[in-house]
Each structure stands twice: as C-alpha cells, then as structure tokens.
C-alpha cells in the first residue's frame, strides 16, 4: 500500500518528469507499444489507462532520457515483471526458433514443394498452350 | 412467451436433424422443405427472444443479466446478441438462414449434390442448435424476477458494435454452407468446374460480410476504446482474421478450379478449413482460454463443447477428404510462370500468413502449458506477417495479366523497372523531403504500385476507353478489390508509422501543441444522458486560420458501474485529430485534466480500403443479369458439354 501511495505521489507531483526531444519521444513511444501493462487484460502500456501503466510509461521516458538502449529498457522491465511484459518475444530457447522461424520455413518449404510437384508433372513444357485470361472471363 | 421460443428452437433442432437425414439420402425436395421450415421455427424463436429484450422482460434470466429499462431502444434490441447465449441464438439463425437460402438458390443441375449439401448444412445446424439448447440456453426464467436488469456492457452501447456481431456471424457462418458443399462434393468425389462455379457465390456471401464485420470492429476499437489504434493483433481480432485470410485464398483458388478445373483438391480443402477456422475462432473467443480486451464470455465447459464440435465436424470432413482426395481430377498441366502459378503463389502466401497468425496466437498458450509466461504481440506480427505478405503485394500488378498455362516472361523487365522507379521516387521523396523512415516510404510505394497496377490492368483489358464500361462486372470487381488492397496498404503504413500520440495535462485555459494544432481547454461540465452521465470537456483547436471545437467525454454508466470514453475526432484530409479525456487530478490545489491526444494520418484509407475490397467482392459475384438479362444461360452454355450431366 505504501508503495502504491508513493507511486501515485510520483505521478501526481510530476506528470512529465523527463523532457525528451522528438526523436527520443518517438523511440519511447515505440517501446511503450511493445511493453505489456501488468494490470490489464491484453494491452500495451501505451494504451492502458491504469495507474501502473502510467508509471511504467514514465519509467520508459526516464530511461530513454538517461540514454539507455532499447535492449536495456526491455531487460529492465523483464527483470522486474518477467518475460510476460514483452510483446516482442525473445529468442532464447529452441522453441523461440520455432516461433520466429516456422513462418519463413513454411514459405520456403511451400515454394519448394510446389516447384517439385510441377517439375514432376510438366515433363514436356513446350506442349502447354497459353490461354489469355480474357478468353475465359468474357 | 419465451417458453414458446424455447419450444420453437427445439422444433428447429428436430427439423434440422431430419433435414440432415433426408439430404444425405439424396432427397432434395424434402430436405429443402425442411430447411425452410426449420428457418421459420428458429425465426419465431429468435423473435420471442428479441421481444423479451424489447419489453424488458426481466423474468428471463438473459434479459435480467444483460438489459436495463433505461437503455435506448436500439441497444435493447442489439442486446439480444450482445452476450454469449443470445449471440449463439443468432449464430443458429444464420446457419439455418444459409440452409434455407441454399434450398432456394442452389441450382447446379445436380439434385443429388444439392440434397447432400443441404443435408450436411442440416447437420451443422443441428449441432449448433444442440449447443444452444443444452450448453447455453437463452430461454431460462429466473424464479424471482427483479424489477431492474443488470444492463449491457456500456462499451457495447454503440451503433458500430450493434451491427458488428451480425455481420461477423454472416461471415463465419456463411462458411458453413461452403463447408457443406465441400463435404457433399467429397462424398461423391466430384470437384469440378460446375462445383467451383456454384461455390464461388457462397464463398463471397461469407467473405463480404466478414470483411464488413472486421472493419466495423476495428472502427469501433478506434473511436470507442480511446487509444487511437485500430488493430492490435489481439487474439480475438486474430480469430476473425484467420477465416478471412483463408476465405481470400479460397476465392482465388476457386478461380483456377472454375476456369481450368485445376486446384480442385486444394479448393475443397480450403473450403473445409475456412469453416473450421470460424469454429476455432468461436472457441478461442468464448472459452476464456485466451486473455483479450474483447472476450465477452469465459466458461471452460462451453469451450470444451465447442472444441469437441470442431473436432467432430472438422475431423469428419478431413477424414472424408483423406479418403476421397486421390479420386479428384486435376486440370491441364501448367508451367511455373502462368496464371495458375501466380494464383498458387497467392494461395501459398495466404495459407502461410494464416499459419503465422495461428502460431502467434496459440504460442503463448502452449508455452503456458510448459510453465512459461510470455506474450506474443504486435512486434512479432509486424516482423513475420508483413514480410510474408509483401511478395504477394509486389507481384500482384504484374501477374494479374498473366495467361493460363504458360506466360512469356520476356517483358518482365519493364515491370521490374517500373517497380524500382516507384520505390526510388517514394524512397527519395519520403526520406529526403518528408523525413519518414525508409520502410514506411517503401510501404507507401507498394500501396501506390497496387492501385496504379490494378488500374493499368483494367485499361489493358478494355483496350480502348469506351470499352471500359463493357467489361464484365467480375473484372471490375477484381480491380476494385485490388485497388482497395493498395489503399489499405497506404493507410495502414502511414497510420502506424506516422501516428503521433501524447498525453496532455491541462488546467482550465491551459494550452498545448499537437501535430501543428494549438489546443486550449475552454470548458468542463457534467452532462446527463438516458442511462449515463458524463464529464464533457470543450477544447478549441486552431491551426492556421482554422478554428474548431472538440468535445471528448468520459461517461459513467451507474447501472454497470463502468466508465467509457467518448472520443472527439476532427477529420481532415490529412488525418484525424483525436482526443480522449482522462482523469481529473488536483495538483497544489489546482484542478487539472489529462487528455490523450493523437494525430492519426490517413486513417480513413484503412477503413476505406477494406470497404473497397468488400465492394469489389460483391461486384464480382453480381450476376450479369443485374444489368443484362439472360446472361446466366449463356454462362452455363460456355462450359464443355457433358459436365452438366449427373
């Protein structure tokens, strides 16, 4: 409870503590869109109206003003609230490679499969007749 | 009254079951009759439910939980489907509606196939009705009725959201009839050009309202949730996007099946999957298995029943597919560079994009089963979904002119040069002059490429300007949909990359700058509505000589004890100035108000693009009879003789 009051006091007393230039502000906003509010259903801190999200936004701004890198800011939040707060999943274990790699593997695999099937079917490609699309749609 | 509705729903359930039996026996006439009577029974049943809401009959449990006498009449009615049970009743009504429409309009010259389609639709409807009656009945009374109801979620008290669910269900459930036609074709192992021609209209009858439903949902999120965004890759949004993507793939695959007899196996598989993903969507939304801002019912047992239904219907159809697919004939052979090859690329990309959305949506759930708490959100989809879709968008203007069978690629360097030119112009202008990031500039170039390429193709087909009006509606539909896609890309890229957002903290008379506008808080007052009261701010905004007033509100609905924000939006050609009212706070005795202010550039292109896509779809299936009579017979006559024979 004490911590909550203290947090509330910080926001109330000084709602815009960190002064950022426009490039820094843009970077801070990009980060706020990919850090998840811990009090809401499924919202980033950029959207949430809860107090804790306001607090977290301010923390992002302060860290940006202090010159922390994107990775450092993400790690700071992860250390305190767990991996759950990162909307951009990290690549650490084998399962993360599945998550990030599977879409592209599927695409490459699909192209290879389609091309392989085509090669098998079309043994004499010169015989194929070209038909203009208009001829069938008229 | 409500007991009468309950009885009518049970009657509809029995009639649907009978329709299933008669249909599968190949009796078209009786199955069609049963489909129409079942719709009639469910129509009466749904009407009693609507009446109960209209009259605020709080002896009905559903009305007591989800309505209130102070609610405006329109939202009392919309409240019927603004909850789990009522929306399932609507789902059943729409399923039966598609069955009845099939009974009347499905004419392929193959009565056995039509009967089986109606039969399977009957079984789908019976399954939905069983779920309604036994797992989520809206017809229950309360023993001791209260004098007042518990109101509707005030967030849902909104015109866009009153019509969002019905449209979405028309889409989801529309795929049930496509599913039924696919299963019927699998039973007789005949998937050919006539089948594809028949399915196409029904696939579009699902795709168009689904597009509209998704768009209304995004529009609602944009102006009602008060965070300035329109799409957040939320699980519930993803659940509606997956059937849409598969539906788009199906529409393109069906073109090959209809015109050339090719891709038959693939088309029928997509037809089955589109409906499976619709049920999967319902499961994800209603089971409470995923946390979402939109989830409006969470009950694990209901989810389990839906999952069993999905496995039963989907599994049966896929089993049938496994046994029959090898019997289905393909079309003539084609080279990789051909219209078939291009449409295969389209399908591959849309299928992989669907798989990506599915993976990203389910991955946190799977991780949780292994004890890992994690999130997958917008950055993941931006880095996977977008690059996967990009090749399809780049190729589209080039390949839509390609011929069937094979295509001479000697002129392709002209296209490559044109694309490189557009990218260079927009890249230089964007990065050099307007100071926007390179990827955003290239995204805009891609959108312009799509719009220009679609128009170019229209002109190429018309050859001369006067012939433009004589082109078939189908070509116009295609062009419109592809232009819509380009418009959407421009809007989405500009809006997401150039959106400006900030939090303001204003005392009375305080000033702030937002995206070139000077804002000043002029007035703050309490306003009262039919079932709410609100704090309403008046803010004057000036830019150059222009001066406007914006009135964002924060509403409280005492019956639901819930605040909502009513945003104030000023539209201008370059974008929306958007204000949402936040909290009141006192700093050193001075009253201050927080506002969230956004400038959303070109946001209307996002919604407009989707509307164009839906309109294009609608155009492409309108029978030419709308403008010219007797076109349908000519259409059928163009098919090779013998294919019509049963």
Task: Please tally the helical runs of chain B, counting DSSP H or I stretches of 4 or more residues.
Answer: 18
Largest sheet of chain B: 6 strands, antiparallel
**How many beta-strand runs of chain A?**
0
Q: Averaging pLDDT over every residue of chain B, what do you get?
A: 88
Order of helices and strands of chain B: HHHHHHHHHHHHHHHHEEEEEEEEEEHH
Q: What percentage of the residues of chain A does DSSP assign to strands (E)?
A: under 5%
Q: Spell out the CATH superfamily of the largest domain in chain A.
A: Cytochrome C biogenesis protein
Domains of chain A, number: 2
What portion of the residues of chain B fall into strands of 2 or more residues? 5-15%
Number of domains of chain B: 4
Radius of gyration of chain B: 27 Å
Instruction: Give the overall silhouette of chain A.
Output: elongated
Instruction: Considering residues with a beta carbon less than 8 A from a beta carbon on another chain, report the largest interface and each chain's count.
Output: A-B, 52 and 66 residues
Largest sheet of chain A: none
- Average pLDDT metric of chain A: 78
State the end-to-end CA separation of chain B.
47 Å
Describe the structure.
The complex is a heterodimer of chains A (138) and B (646). Chain A has 138 residues and is an all-alpha fold. Helices cover 61% and strands 0% of the residues of chain A. Chain A is built from six helices and no strands. In chain A, helix 1 crosses helix 3 and helix 2 packs across helix 3. In chain A, 24% of the residues are buried. Chain B is α+β, with helices and mostly antiparallel strands and 646 residues long. Chain B folds into four domains: 155 residues, Four Helix Bundle (Hemerythrin (Met), subunit A), CATH 1.20.120; 250 residues, no CATH class; 91 residues, no CATH class; 104 residues, Tick-borne Encephalitis virus Glycoprotein, domain 1. Helix content of chain B is 61%, strand content 12%. Chain B has 18 helices and ten strands. In chain B, a hairpin with a 2-residue loop joins strand 9 and strand 10. The chains are: A mainly alpha (138), B alpha+beta (646). The interface between A and B is large, with 52 and 66 residues.
């Amino acid at each position: 409870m004490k911590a909550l009051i203290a947090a509330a006091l910080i926001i109330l007393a000084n709602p815009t503590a960190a002064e950022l230039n426009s490039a820094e502000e843009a970077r801070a906003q990009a980060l706020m869109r990919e850090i998840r509010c811990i009090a809401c259903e499924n919202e980033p801190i950029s959207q949430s109206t809860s107090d804790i999200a306001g607090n977290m936004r301010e923390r992002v701004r302060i860290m940006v003003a202090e010159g922390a890198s994107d990775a450092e800011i993400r790690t700071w939040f992860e250390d305190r609230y767990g991996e759950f707060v990162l909307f951009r999943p990290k690549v650490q274990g084998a399962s993360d490679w599945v998550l990030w790699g599977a879409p592209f593997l599927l695409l490459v695999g699909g192209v290879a499969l389609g091309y392989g099937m085509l090669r098998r079917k079309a043994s004499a490609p010169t015989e194929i007749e070209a038909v203009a699309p208009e001829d069938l749609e008229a | 009254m409500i007991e009468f509705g309950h009885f009518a729903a049970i009657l509809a359930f029995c009639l649907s079951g009978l329709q299933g039996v008669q249909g599968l026996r190949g009796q078209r006439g009786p199955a069609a009759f049963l489909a129409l009577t079942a719709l009639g029974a469910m129509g009466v049943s749904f009407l009693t439910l609507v009446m109960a809401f209209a009259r605020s009959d709080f002896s009905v449990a559903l009305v007591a939980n989800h309505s209130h006498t102070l609610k405006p009449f329109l939202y009392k009615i919309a409240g019927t489907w603004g909850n789990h049970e009522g929306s399932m009743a609507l789902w059943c009504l729409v399923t039966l509606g598609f069955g009845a429409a099939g009974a009347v309009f499905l004419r392929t010259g193959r009565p056995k196939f039509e009967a089986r389609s109606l039969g399977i639709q009957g079984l789908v409807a019976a399954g939905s009705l069983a779920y309604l009656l036994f797992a989520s009945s809206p017809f229950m009374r309360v023993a001791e009725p209260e004098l007042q109801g518990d109101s509707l979620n005030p967030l849902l008290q909104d015109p866009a959201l009153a019509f969002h669910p019905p449209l979405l269900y028309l889409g989801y459930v529309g795929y049930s009839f496509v599913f039924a036609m696919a299963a019927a074709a699998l039973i007789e192992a005949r998937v050919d050009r006539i089948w594809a021609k028949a399915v196409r209209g029904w696939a579009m009858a699902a795709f168009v309202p689904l597009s509209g439903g998704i768009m209304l949902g995004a529009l609602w999120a944009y102006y009602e949730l008060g965070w300035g965004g329109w799409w957040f890759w939320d699980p519930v949004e993803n659940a509606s996007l997956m059937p849409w993507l598969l539906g788009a793939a199906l529409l393109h695959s069906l073109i090959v099946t209809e015109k050339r007899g090719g891709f038959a196996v693939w088309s029928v598989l997509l037809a089955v999957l589109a409906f499976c993903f619709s049920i999967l969507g319902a499961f994800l939304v209603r089971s409470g298995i995923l946390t979402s801002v939109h989830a409006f019912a969470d009950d694990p047992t209901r989810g389990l029943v839906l999952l069993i239904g999905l496995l039963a219907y989907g599994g049966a159809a896929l089993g049938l597919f496994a046994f029959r697919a090898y019997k289905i004939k393909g079309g003539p052979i084609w080279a990789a560079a051909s219209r078939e090859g291009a449409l295969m690329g389209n399908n591959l990309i849309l299928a992989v994009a669907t798989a990506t959305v599915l993976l990203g949506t389910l991955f946190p759930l799977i991780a949780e089963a292994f004890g890992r708490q994690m999130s997958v959100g917008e950055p993941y989809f931006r880095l996977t979904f977008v690059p996967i879709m990009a090749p399809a968008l780049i190729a589209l203007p080039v390949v839509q002119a390609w011929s069937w069978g094979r295509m001479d690629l000697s002129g392709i360097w002209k296209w490559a040069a044109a694309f490189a030119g557009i990218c260079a112009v927009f890249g230089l202008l964007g990065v050099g002059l307007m100071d926007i990031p390179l990827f955003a500039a290239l995204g805009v170039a891609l959108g312009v490429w799509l719009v220009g390429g679609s128009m170019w193709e229209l002109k190429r087909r018309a050859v001369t300007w006067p012939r433009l009006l004589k082109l078939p509606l189908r070509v116009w539909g295609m062009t419109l949909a592809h232009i819509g896609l380009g418009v959407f890309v421009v809007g989405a890229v500009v809006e997401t990359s150039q959106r400006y957002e900030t939090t303001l903290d204003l005392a009375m008379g305080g000033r702030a700058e937002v995206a070139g506008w000077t804002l000043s808080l002029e007035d703050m007052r309490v306003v009262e509505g039919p079932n709410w009261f609100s704090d309403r701010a008046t803010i004057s905004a000036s830019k150059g000589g222009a001066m406007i007033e914006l009135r964002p509100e924060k509403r409280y609905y005492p019956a639901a004890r819930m605040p909502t924000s009513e945003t104030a939006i000023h539209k201008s050609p370059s974008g929306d100035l958007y204000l949402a009212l936040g909290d009141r706070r006192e700093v050193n005795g001075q009253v201050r108000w927080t506002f969230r202010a956004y400038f959303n550039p070109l946001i209307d292109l996002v919604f407009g693009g989707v509307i164009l896509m839906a309109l294009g779809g609608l155009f492409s299936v309108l029978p030419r009879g709308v403008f010219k009579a007797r076109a349908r017979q000519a259409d059928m006559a163009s098919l090779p003789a013998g294919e019509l024979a049963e």
